[in-house]
């Protein structure tokens, strides 16, 4: 079945927009995407938090192992983010045997933390496959065996069309351990 990956910036934007619209879950996601054509002054005007908060910056590309490759800047101010991006924009990187230039970055508020989680949603004609792991961050590739997976069928999909290891239902709240009435999730 054909799949198309999307950038982290776009996935977070879609989560913020549609979780609220579909199930009333509001998430405070602040992120900015920076490419070669980004006007920093205009960006700060539309996203004023960029000038006042400590930030994290990383390539917004369709590959992993960014942290292990030295491509993540943590706890930076806006001037440091601009310098970090300037030094790496267009740089050729090789990860997992694939080579190409870095063309986009995502910038978000830096949140000090001791633990990261991993969440993936794959939507196809049968429904959504949701994967969750409490071994997120730079170690996710080494911990795929700890990844919890669930398939939630589309309303029009009958249960006999699903793979035998799938289970229907409200997987997101179950995987995240969220009580039924819970509304706030930080991503």
Description:
This protein is an alpha+beta fold. Helices cover 21% and strands 25% of the residues. The strands form three sheets. The protein has a four-stranded antiparallel beta sheet, with helices on one face. The chain has a three-stranded antiparallel beta sheet with strand order 7-8-9. A hairpin with a 2-residue loop joins strand 7 and strand 8. The longest helix is centred in the first third of the chain and has 16 residues. The protein is globular and about 45 Å long. It starts with 7 loop residues before the first helix and ends in an 11-residue tail after the last helix. The C terminus is likely disordered. InterPro entries: Citrate_synth_N (IPR056749). It comes from Platanthera guangdongensis.
Briefly note the structural class of the backbone: alpha+beta
Helix run count:
4
Strand content: 25-35%
How many strand elements?
9
User: Low-confidence stretches at least 5 residues in length (pLDDT < 50)?
Assistant: 157-187
Order of helices and strands: HEHEEHEEEEEEH
- Tell me about the biggest sheet? 4 strands, antiparallel
Indicate the percent of residues in helices: 10-25%
* Shape call: globular
The oligomeric state is single chain
InterPro entries: Citrate_synth_N
Domain ATP-citrate synthase ATP-grasp: 2-148
Organism: Platanthera guangdongensis
Region (Disordered): 146-187
């Amino acid at each position: 079945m054909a799949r198309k990956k999307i950038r982290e910036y776009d996935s977070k934007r879609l989560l913020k927009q549609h979780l609220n619209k579909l199930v009333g879950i509001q998430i405070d996601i602040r992120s900015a995407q920076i490419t070669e054509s980004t006007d920093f002054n205009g960006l700060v005007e539309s996203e004023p938090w960029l000038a006042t908060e400590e930030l994290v910056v990383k390539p917004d590309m369709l590959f992993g192992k960014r942290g292990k490759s030295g491509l993540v800047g943590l706890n930076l101010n806006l001037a440091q983010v601009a310098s970090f991006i300037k030094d790496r924009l267009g740089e050729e990187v090789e990860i997992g045997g694939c080579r190409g230039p870095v063309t986009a970055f995502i910038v978000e508020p830096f949140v000090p933390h001791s633990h990261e989680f991993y969440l993936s949603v794959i939507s196809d004609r049968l429904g959504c496959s949701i994967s969750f792991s409490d071994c997120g961050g730079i170690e996710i590739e080494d911990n795929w065996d700890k990844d919890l997976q669930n398939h939630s069928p589309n309303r029009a999909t009958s249960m006999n069309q699903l793979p035998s290891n799938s289970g229907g239902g409200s997987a997101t709240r179950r995987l995240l351990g969220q009580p039924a009435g819970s509304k706030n999730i930080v991503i």
